[in-house]
């Protein structure tokens, strides 16, 4: 059972037909601190001002599958009810907040699944040729992280992805970020239907984008989200192709995963090795590393294997928490920032909330979501099988990791990439990392084979895309074009 220790954002302390119907739900990271001070201030100032609130609307007054204008408190919203899923979208168009480029549309709003479940999202068009630009969703980790934290002022950020990509940021599951409601989702599998139904409604309402392939960009606990959600979407497509589903096709084009948590059997060992042998400084002694390795082989690995072999057995997967305390121990009581070992550790505005009448205050990471996922031992469930299936299907995939992050370290992320089961496994695993340059300046090292690439990001913590924005912009755009990454 997951029990947070220390900062609530420290997801690394985790022990780790098929109609996507929320009614069939199961009952039951973040960036380096200093670079995010400005971003957090921006998020609180910008997002809270624009957070739309759900106003119950009588669906009888509107025709389904058509847009309608609804006058709210000093704001005119656009409302769309998707007949197939029952999802209701309520958005505000072009508020002038965050995206100020003339002619570039953006839509913050809610997808409401019923009167009690409301998921916040923000869609920002690509600044160049949006109707043919790649389309991507951004999911924060956590579990419980707010994707809105990834938003930056697009007009002033040279490396913002929406220069070239249509981006939709989703606060999921419900109770993450601005999303709110009576929701009890406690696993990655149970969270997937909401994102699928939101996308079904979105592409029905914004049909100018419906024929575009979908990319998933995520990080941290998104190692679970990205791999599992992509696999679930592909399962849906197979049902549609077999004639047993009537949903819109959503083809997964690319998958981008950063500093992810995927597989305990691999990553509990890797954090011991990283703590001793990272390129910055040893964080534990050789003797301590040997003690942790004995604990791993005697207690942690056997417990993790029992869970992996019987995922439906709650007791076996709960035992991983008790038997795999290695990571919690290594991350606890440190005098440095575990999300970026180069840094020392350091520890909603009510007036704005009242002014905008928001129903849910904004949280960087939701404790409620985090604890629910812990109760159901979701982090003990390996995402490696789902990850492998997505890569085997041909999806262009980039796994990257900042090399100063201890929580989801690059040693473990590389080991996971080497263990992905596809027809290029042996060739990929045998390749050495080589320099990755941006305009002639080496900023990392990488390897690639067929549709899979791995990138170690130098001088970057858990939020590598913020620490090395030029590198992230280059690597992401290469991947979005369904190409293997390459130095410039």
UniProtKB/TrEMBL annotation:
Key words of the record: Carboxypeptidase, Glycoprotein, Hydrolase, Membrane, Protease, Transmembrane, Transmembrane helix
Top-level taxon: Eukaryota
Any one Gene Ontology molecular-function term assigned to this protein's record: serine-type carboxypeptidase activity
Parts of the chain that traverse the membrane: 37-57
Entry GO CC: fungal-type vacuole
Keyword Protease: yes
GO terms, biological process: proteolysis
Record-stated family: Belongs to the peptidase S10 family.
Protein name: Putative carboxypeptidase S1
Lineage per the UniProt record: Eukaryota, Fungi, Dikarya, Ascomycota, Pezizomycotina
């Amino acid at each position: 059972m997951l029990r947070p220790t220390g900062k609530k954002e420290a997801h690394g302390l985790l022990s780790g037909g098929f109609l996507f119907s929320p009614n069939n739900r199961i009952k039951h990271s973040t960036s380096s601190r200093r670079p995010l001070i400005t971003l957090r201030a921006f998020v609180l100032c910008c997002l809270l001002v624009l957070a739309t609130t759900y106003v119950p609307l009588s669906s009888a007054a509107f025709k389904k599958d058509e847009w309608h204008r609804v006058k709210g408190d000093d704001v005119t919203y656009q409302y769309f009810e998707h007949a197939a899923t029952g999802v209701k979208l309520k958005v505000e168009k072009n508020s002038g907040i965050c995206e100020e480029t003339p002619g570039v549309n953006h839509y913050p709003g809610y997808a409401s699944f019923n009167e009690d479940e409301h998921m916040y999202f923000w869609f920002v068009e690509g600044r160049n040729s949006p109707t043919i630009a790649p389309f991507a969703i951004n999911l924060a980790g956590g579990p419980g992280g707010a994707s809105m934290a990834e938003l930056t002022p697009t007009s002033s950020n040279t490396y913002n992805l929406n220069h070239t990509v249509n981006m939709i940021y989703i606060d999921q599951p419900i109770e993450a970020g601005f999303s709110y409601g009576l929701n009890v989702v406690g696993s990655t599998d149970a969270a997937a239907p909401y994102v699928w139904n939101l996308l079904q409604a979105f592409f029905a309402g914004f049909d100018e984008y419906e024929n575009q392939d979908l990319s998933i960009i995520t990080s941290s606990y998104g190692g679970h989200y990205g791999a599992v959600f992509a696999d679930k979407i592909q399962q849906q497509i197979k049902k549609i192709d077999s004639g047993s589903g009537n949903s819109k096709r959503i083809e997964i084009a690319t998958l981008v995963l950063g500093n992810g948590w995927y597989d305990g059997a691999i990553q509990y060992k890797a954090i011991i090795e990283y703590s001793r042998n990272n390129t910055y400084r040893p964080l534990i002694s050789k003797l301590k590393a040997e003690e942790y390795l004995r604990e791993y082989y005697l207690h942690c690995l056997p417990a993790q294997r029992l869970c992996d072999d019987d995922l439906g057995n709650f007791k076996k997967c709960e035992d991983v928490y008790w038997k795999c305390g290695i990571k919690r121990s290594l991350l606890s009581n440190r005098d440095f920032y575990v999300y970026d070992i180069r840094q020392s550790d350091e520890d909603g505005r009510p007036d704005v909330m009242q002014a905008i009448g928001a129903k849910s205050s904004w949280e960087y990471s939701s404790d409620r979501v985090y604890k629910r996922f812990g109760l159901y031992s979701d982090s003990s469930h390996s995402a490696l099988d789902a990850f492998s299936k997505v890569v085997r299907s041909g999806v262009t995939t980039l796994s990257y990791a900042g090399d100063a992050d201890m929580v989801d370290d690059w040693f473990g992320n590389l080991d996971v990439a080497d263990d992905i089961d596809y027809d290029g496994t042996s060739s990929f695993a045998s390749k050495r990392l080589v320099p990755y340059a941006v305009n002639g300046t080496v900023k990392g090292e990488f390897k690639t084979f067929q549709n899979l690439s791995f990138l170690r990001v130098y001088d970057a913590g858990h939020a590598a895309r913020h620490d090395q924005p030029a590198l992230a912009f280059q690597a992401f755009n290469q991947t979005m074009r369904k190409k293997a990454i390459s130095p410039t």
